[in-house]
């Protein structure tokens, strides 16, 4: 084993600038077999210590790598958890939008049904108006001229002249002969059709008898 005191003495000499003394001490150590063997053993120990230190450093590096990997994994797990929460919120949002879309669809369906019913109603009214128009057209082209002819004929026979400017609920006019004029005015609300008919025939008969 190397004499540590000798080594320390050499170091002190070098620090104090005593180069020759340090060289003499080194020469003495190198000329002694025991010291040389000690230096070799010391060198081997230093190399072993360096190797162990390198192994230790490598182990520390592996530990640090494992720690960093574990940290990355934890961050990844946390990020995935956050992503899962975000996905859950997105699913809830999509479900809410789906419900709103269904409600909107139902409202649109009801509105469409109401519009179809309104269209059918208007179509029925249009058909009714078309039929009424045809009836009015028929009355205008066929019934009305015939009615006018009959009224004119009855007027000539009976001598009744109608006042068409009277109120809607009033029957007004006069019975005219060559010698007499007999006016009449009847309220439809107060008299029945039977009474009105008999009254007018009596009036016509009286006018004819007065000729």
UniProtKB/TrEMBL annotation:
Keywords assigned by UniProt, alphabetized: Cell cycle, Cell division, Centromere, Chromosome, Coiled coil, Kinetochore, Mitosis, Nucleus
Gene3D superfamilies on file: Ncd80 complex, Spc24 subunit
Function recorded in the entry: Acts as a component of the essential kinetochore-associated NDC80 complex, which is required for chromosome segregation and spindle checkpoint activity. Required for kinetochore integrity and the organization of stable microtubule binding sites in the outer plate of the kinetochore. The NDC80 complex synergistically enhances the affinity of the SKA1 complex for microtubules and may allow the NDC80 complex to track depolymerizing microtubules.
Keyword Cell cycle (UniProt): yes
Cellular component per GO, a single term: Ndc80 complex
Principal localisation: nucleus
Top-level taxon of origin: Eukaryota
Subunit structure: Component of the NDC80 complex.
Lineage: Eukaryota, Metazoa, Echinodermata, Eleutherozoa, Echinozoa
PANTHER family per UniProt: KINETOCHORE PROTEIN SPC24 (PTHR22142:SF2), PTHR22142
Protein name: Kinetochore protein Spc24
Coiled coil location: 91-139
Protein family according to the UniProt entry: Belongs to the SPC24 family.
Subcellular location as annotated: Nucleus; Chromosome, Centromere, Kinetochore
An individual GO BP term: chromosome segregation
Alphabetized Pfam families for the sequence: Spc24 (PF08286)
Organism this protein belongs to: Strongylocentrotus purpuratus (Purple sea urchin)
């Amino acid at each position: 084993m190397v004499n540590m005191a000798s080594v320390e003495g050499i170091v002190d000499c070098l620090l104090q600038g005593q180069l020759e003394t340090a060289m003499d001490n080194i020469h003495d150590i190198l000329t002694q077999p025991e010291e040389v063997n000690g230096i070799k053993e010391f060198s081997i120990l230093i190399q072993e210590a360096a190797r162990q230190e390198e192994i230790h450093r490598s182990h520390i590096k592996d530990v640090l790598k494992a720690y960093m990997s574990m940290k990355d994994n934890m961050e990844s797990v946390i990020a995935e958890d956050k992503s899962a929460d975000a996905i859950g919120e997105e699913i809830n949002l999509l479900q809410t939008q789906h419900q709103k879309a269904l409600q909107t669809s139902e409202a649109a369906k009801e509105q469409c049904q109401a519009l179809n019913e309104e269209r059918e109603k208007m179509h029925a009214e249009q058909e009714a108006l078309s039929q009424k128009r045809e009836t009015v057209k028929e009355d205008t082209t066929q019934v009305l001229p015939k009615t006018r002819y009959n009224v004119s004929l009855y007027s000539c026979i009976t001598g009744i002249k109608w006042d068409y400017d009277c109120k809607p609920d009033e029957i007004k006019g006069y019975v005219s002969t060559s010698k007499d004029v007999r006016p009449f005015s009847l309220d439809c609300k107060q008299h029945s059709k039977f009474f009105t008919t008999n009254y007018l025939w009596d009036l016509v008969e009286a006018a004819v008898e007065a000729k």
